[in-house]
Amino acid sequence: LALLQQEELFEKGLLKDHFLRVSDLLKLYLSRRFEHRLLEKTTEEINGELQEKVETQVLRKINRALELCDRAKFAQYHPSVDENSQLFIRLKDIVEKCRPSKEELGI
Fold first, then answer.
1. pLDDT at position 100 over 90
2. With contact defined as beta carbons under 8 Å apart, do 38 and 49 qualify?
């Protein structure tokens, strides 16, 4: 996420590229974390796959993040600077909440 922010695609006005990268990074993380192939799935399909694996509140954050990316990629929506900042806060929270437990890690 930090590397993506350093690329400054959002600040350069490359919104579609920026939100495509954000979406792909989130899907890749979730794919690896939960051992599902999610890169080619829609937001709705991802919701169905993860429904029993993550808490409802976390799933809502995942959906909101992906929906914002979808609107920016496909609906010519131009998120504000604040929406983009909130997105990165949400992404960091998703990663934190989805972190494997000590039991999962065998610790």
1. no
2. yes
Total Cβ atoms within 10 A of residue 65:
22
Calculate the alpha carbon distances from 32 to 27, 37, 39, 87 in Å.
9, 8, 10, 21
Per-residue exposure over 23-46, b if at least 16 CB sit within 10 Å of its own CB, e if not: beebbebbbebeebebeebebeeb
pTM over 0.70: yes
Find, among 49, 40, 79, 43, the residue nearest to 63 by Cα. Answer: 43
pLDDT band at 76 (very low <50, low <70, confident <90, very high): confident
DSSP the chain: -HHHHHHTTTTTT-HHHHHHHHHHHHHHHHHHHHT---TT--HHHHHHHHTTTS-HHHHHHHHHHHHHHHHHHHS-----HHHHHHHHHHHHHHHHHTSPPHHHHT-
Residue 46 is encoded by which pair of tokens?
């991802």
